[in-house]
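In line with agreed milestones, the collection of sequences with tokenised folds has grown. A representative record is reproduced below.
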Amino acid sequence: MTYPVDQKTALHCVITAGPTYESLDQVRRLTNFSTGSLGAQFSAYLCSKGIRVTLLTGYYVTYEGAFEADSRIPFTTTTDLADKLKHLNNQKVDAIFHAAAVSDFAFGKVWEKPEQGEMEEIVLGKISTRSGTLLAELVPTPKILPQLRHWFPNAYIVGWKYEVEGSKEKSSEKAIKQLNECQTDACVLNGPAIGDGFEVYPKNQKQPTSLTNRPALFKFLRESLLDSKNA
């Protein structure tokens, strides 16, 4: 379904969805578990409200529903996603919802571990399964969220925090830390560590807002964006 949007007056939102990946060799990759469904559904919701959406989706999204957006841009690695976001800063961008599951690590050097002797570094287009036991170095990928405020100084920016383990209190501390360190306007916290639903931590608000499902989250984020533009 398409929705008529006034390109000159409509708010313009950028949404990232789905996983990045990092290559081990030319045929094997490291990625995250992410379908891209939340970002795709949020894009459709905003489009239905007359908001212009640029949707960036990971190459390996598995969401089988419709991708409704004014424009859709695929991304691959973390660096590729960062480059494509930065390229959008020459446009009017009112909000960024960074929901993509960005890989925290990329592969560095890979070594072969022979039965005897010292390990040897492997540099091949495709690492043979006959190489035996391998030792792969994992190096941190560049963080995208802390750069968004620099690229889009006037945008309403929302980050996501997905927590698997730990207490709800510790997860809350991480969400607040993200807000402070990345200068975002809100953080959406979810994952097994907090149970079902979402906790949204707006900037300068002591208590989070608890939301039970995606429709409630989408409505809350849109209203928060509109409030920020009317402030």
The CA atoms of residues 117 and 125 lie 24 Å apart. The helical segments are 37-48, 78-87, 145-151, 168-182, 214-230. The chain has a mean pLDDT of 91.
